[in-house]
Amino acid sequence: MAYDEELAGRIRAQLGTRDVVEKRMFGGVGMMLHGNMACGLVKHGLLVRIDPADFDELIARADTRPFEMNANRTPRGWVVVPPEAVEDDAALAEWVARGVAFVETLPPK
After folding, report:
1. Where is the TfoX N-terminal domain (predicted)?
2. Which whole-number Å values give the CA distances from 44 to 39, 55, 62, 70, 80, in the listed order?
3. How far apart are CA 50 and CA 42, in angstroms?
4. Are 45 and 6 in contact (CB under 8 A)?
């Protein structure tokens, strides 16, 4: 298992009755809304889709890091939140809501 199944269950609970499609990607799982990934899990934590305009502000926080796809690519539209930063449901809800809110601004795929 490349990702935390318990955390995946908590994310599913946060997403509730939304029409979510789970897709294996990046060695983990992505939670897709309208064909766009809102959040997911990778080996090192919660992957959250964000507005690229918020990247610098969010990455300056102690509880996030950039998502590094490879040595040459760090997309500004994603951050990784370590599991210890989303241990309580309120913190997890904030991050999941941020990903969902951004994806809802995108056209469906």
Report:
1. 19-102
2. 13, 19, 15, 14, 8
3. 16
4. no
Helix or strand or coil: residue 31?
strand
CA gap 76, 86 in Å, rounded = 21
Residue found by looking up tokens 């029409």 in the block: 19
- Whole-number Å distance between alpha carbons of 82 and 78: 13
Q: How far is 97 from 6, CA to CA, in rounded Å?
A: 19
78 close to 50: Cβ distance less than 8 angstroms = yes
Element (H, E) at 22: strand 20-25
Q: What pLDDT was estimated at residue 1?
A: 53
Outline where the chain has alpha helix (H): 5-15, 55-59, 89-103
Tens-place pLDDT, residues 54-69: 999 999 999 999 998 8
CATH number of 5-103: 3.90.1150.30
